[in-house]
Amino acid sequence: MPVEPTHGEFAQHTARLVATVRAPLAGTPADVPQILHWPGRRLLVQRGDTELAVRDLAGEEAEFRFPAPWPRRFGQATVSPAGDLAVFSGLHALRAVDRTGGTRWEVRHGCWSSAVCTASHTSFSEYADDPGHAHADSGSAAFSPDGTLVWAHVRSGGGEHTKEEWLVLDSASGSVLGRAETMTVSAASWHFPHPDGAHMGLTVGQGDDDSPLLWGHWDGTALTFEKLVGEVFLDVGPSGRHFLTTDPGQWALYLHRTSDGAEVRRLNAADAVSPLPGDDMARWHYEAAFPYEDGAVVGTEDHADVPRHWLVDPRTLSVDGPVAYPFPVSGSPLSAGRGAWCTVSQDHTSVHLWSLAGRD
Predict the structure, then answer these.
(1) Distances from the Cα of 340 to the Cαs of 134, 187, 238, 317, 337, in angstroms?
(2) Is the pLDDT of residue 6 over 60?
(3) What is the pLDDT of residues 274-320, one digit of tens each?
(4) In terms of Cα–Cα distance, which of 240, 140, 232, 255 is closest to 198?
(5) Pairing of strands 163-170, 176-181
């Protein structure tokens, strides 16, 4: 039977506020701020229409910005661990830009609105006012922890010949080192780096229950991957030995080995957490954090004004109890690296970093 936290079966776990950081583009039209992290490094990143703003969360929280080659609705953006290079994943190209806005390199690819566009546009101005491009799909990109590689999900070809590929590129030159056809039909995608730099997770949003997760491996010569159908990537554990997923229906959590992507165990929401009044069952969030080897922070009820966050023990994949905050939080618990997770304020103007009380 599902358990109810007020009955005392669970121990309550206290969240300790580590820091509150104001979003660099607060008060302007911008995407929700997010934390990109690698071992020993955390950057707060926020995409606006004209720039990508980055704040280093170490030391004096230095801030720097990258001029954007196109508005934010035309793709995604990421930044290197060193904060010296941004890669904009657009509709027709991947473009690496330095802090002055200078183009370091560009890799052109098929259009993400290829159902209506088979042209090889060389300039954003050529399609800036085209309605078909305004509502296009998108790919994504991410850096390896050492900053030497860029993984990118792109389209190639056009019209009936369109296919999707996963690329591994040299971050300094943009040279394509490896590629693999994903056999997906994506509306959007999201990357999840592994600490070892040789593995990468990719969630491909196809808009249906078959939306897959790709668990990729780069051995220095070839890019290969395992495809997990109907799973959404959540986070990698701090040791890198396991990663956590859910499914598009949000029915269960799944723990996988990173060595081969195999499922180790699962936790059905209906068996773990009682639903809120009026709900037929609790459902896991599409986002979560895996900050400790013995503790992942996972939410339920992403529609609720006050979501419930739970500490889940990955060793048994069971709920240890609810997470209690010193003030109300909104949204999902989000990955922030080893020993921490974050939440974003409801108005998206600040990010709160958390750890478990009593943990270093």
Answers:
(1) 37, 30, 10, 19, 6
(2) no
(3) 999 888 999 999 999 999 999 999 999 877 778 899 999 999 999 99
(4) 240
(5) antiparallel
